[in-house]
């Protein structure tokens, strides 16, 4: 039997224990996912990949997998992440493609086969656990703050407002990390979509805010709001039950973003302190900057805004503390 030469090199890393390798064999390129089963359960990835592929979304095809050892062989969607390709000249086209794919994902909630229980519910307990990451890992661990009882109450009240808003929204399939580092520019059926294994059934604005108020790139508020209103119209026309009121939809979007960005800041701090990945710290000022901007426009978040300003957040993260590049 003739042996075939192949090339194996790291493809990417993410904020988990998964590793990805690009294998070139016989002129074809593949991705190998190494997800240690004691650290990562790959069964959701397999089930979700198959369902999203059936919807027509451009996700990696599953070629072979051994869940017992945590190895998956996938088709290769390429290396052209959205982030470095986003510019004034490209953003309308690239975001237009991404928003179109998001409509397909969300309408899949109601398509044949969209059975209850396929994805776990983004329930109050999960939303709260995510918000507590901001308190525990960013405020307490990273900044070294000892919060008073009254400060704790302010956070708890704000968390309650954000959770109630999230749960009041139409609940659809949610990728949960739909942003410029998980979308790839592809020649056909753009975008390629990866890192969907944590998908849930949750708020209709969650993926939208992940894309348009990305932790890794920012756009002017007025432009973002125009995109949100355009998406609301498209979603309504596509049968997604978002309602007629685009003002209400924009408020849902705003408050959902506060929840996501508080969570993300906590995760970035945890990646540094627990996992030895300091590069994400540099993205915290942008991420919390969204929180301050949005909170200033919604009176019910006034106490949260006052607290963050009193704690000098995010200014407390100095450039020296950020250190390093992106992981």
UniProtKB/TrEMBL annotation:
Xref: InterPro entries: Aminoglycoside_PTrfase, Kinase-like_dom_sf
Listed Pfam families: APH
SUPFAM superfamilies assigned to the protein according to its UniProt record, in alphabetical order: Protein kinase-like (PK-like)
Stretch forming the signal peptide: none
The name this protein goes by in its record: Aminoglycoside phosphotransferase
MF term (GO), any: ATP binding
Coiled-coil region(s): none
Keyword Transferase tagged: yes
Aminoglycoside phosphotransferase domain residues: 7-232
UniProt keyword annotations, A-Z: ATP-binding, Nucleotide-binding, Transferase
């Amino acid at each position: 039997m003739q042996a075939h030469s192949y090339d194996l090199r790291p493809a990417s890393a993410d904020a988990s224990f998964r590793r990805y390798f690009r294998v070139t064999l016989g002129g074809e390129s593949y991705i190998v996912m190494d997800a240690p089963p004691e650290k990562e359960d790959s069964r959701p990835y397999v089930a979700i990949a198959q369902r999203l592929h059936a919807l027509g979304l451009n996700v990696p095809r599953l070629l072979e997998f051994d869940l017992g050892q945590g190895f998956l062989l996938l088709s290769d969607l390429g290396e052209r992440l959205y982030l470095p390709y986003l510019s004034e000249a490209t953003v309308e086209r690239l975001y237009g493609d991404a928003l179109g794919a998001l409509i397909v994902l969300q309408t899949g909630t109601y398509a044949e086969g969209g059975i209850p229980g396929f994805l776990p519910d983004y329930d109050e307990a999960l939303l709260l656990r995510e918000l507590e990451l901001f308190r525990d890992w960013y405020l307490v661990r990273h900044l070294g703050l000892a919060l008073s009882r009254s400060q704790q109450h302010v956070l708890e009240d704000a968390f309650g407002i954000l959770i109630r808003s999230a749960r009041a929204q139409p609940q659809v399939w949610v990728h949960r990390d739909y942003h410029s580092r998980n979308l790839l520019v592809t020649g056909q059926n753009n975008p390629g979509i990866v890192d969907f294994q944590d998908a849930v059934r949750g708020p209709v604005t969650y993926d939208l805010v992940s894309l348009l108020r990305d932790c890794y790139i920012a756009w002017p508020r007025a432009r973002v709001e125009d995109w949100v209103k355009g998406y609301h119209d498209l979603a309504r026309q596509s049968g997604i039950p978002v309602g007629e009121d685009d003002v209400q939809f924009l408020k849902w979007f705003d408050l959902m973003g506060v929840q996501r960005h508080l969570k993300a800041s906590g995760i970035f701090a945890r990646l540094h302190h627990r996992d030895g990945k300091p590069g994400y710290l540099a993205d915290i000022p942008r991420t919390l900057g969204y929180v301050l901007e949005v909170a200033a426009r919604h009176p019910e978040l006034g106490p949260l805004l006052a607290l963050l300003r009193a704690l000098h957040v995010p200014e407390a993260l100095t450039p020296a503390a950020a250190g390093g590049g992106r992981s």
